[in-house]
Write a structure and sequence with these properties.
Blueprint: E1 2-9, E2 14-20, H1 22-27, E3 33-37, E4 45-53, E5 58-64, H2 68-73, E6 81-82, E7 84-89, E8 100-106, H3 109-122, E9 126-133, H4 142-148, E10 151-156, E11 163-164, H5 167-177, E12 182-186, H6 189-199, E13 205-209, E14 225-228, E15 231-234, H7 235-238, E16 241-243, H8 249-256, H9 260-290
Parallel strand pairs: 8-9, 8-12, 9-10, 10-11, 12-13
Antiparallel strand pairs: 1-2, 1-6, 2-5, 3-4, 3-7, 4-5, 13-16, 14-15
Helix pairs in contact: 5-6
Length: about 290
Amino acid sequence: MNKIVKAEFLSADIKRFIISAPKIAVKRKAGQFVIVRSNSHGERIPLTIADSDPSEGTITLIVQGIGKSTKEINSFETNDYFHDVVGPLGQASEIEYFGTAVSIGGGVGAAIAYPTAVALKEKGNHTISIIGARTKELIILEKEMRAKVDEVYVTTDDGSYGFHGFVTQQLAKLISEQKIDYVLAIGPIPMMKAVAATTRPRNIKTIVSLNPVMVDGTGMCGGCRATVDNKTVFVCVDGPEFDAHKVDFDLLMKRNRTYLTFEKQSLEKQHICNNDKAFELALQAESVTKN
């Protein structure tokens, strides 16, 4: 079991966990992930390692509570325990000197972009980070990014903070103003597709992390199957990072929608179970009061 050294919400549904995992902390590289289970019967959840402290033996994970399992994970607090954390898994990011490197994180994707942005800076690149979200309240890791990279730009869909618009608009502006040599994009699939379309005309090396489609994390379930350069890949073992200009995003989005109905049913079932439990507790309380 892995102890949670610290747990804190970064926004309404996004929580940061610092977890005791000494062996993983020493071995992990930017771009790799772990598999987390909240309990012995829990779903296997792949989560990118946002940071690590080998001297303290800890790793940092950032979780957005969207489905049943991630919401359950986000109910955990400091000093609680995850049943198991396995890793590091996946291929590490390609870290070398490119020149000017832009990392783009959409929503919780900023947590995935962060370790690679830091590694690119350490390699001598001039690093630029674009962090985007729907509103100001959903922006995460801005302070951490500013402490590690050369330039940070924030965008919000509603204009409540930073640039009013999408990350692709900020990227296009940067491309028009200076030479960009490398782009890493992580976030919703439509966003990554739009980034690829923005950089393709200039033939800018562009990498996307497809970890939003990972399920089991071992390649055995086939849930993260994707088409890259007209070949079938399994994101969790062959990636999660791929050449954005070779990814079939349309097929990827179609496959990703396959699980929406099942996730909705799972959440509805959990809601019903919680209501039943609450009703049962209420009856017990009423019985105690009467007696």
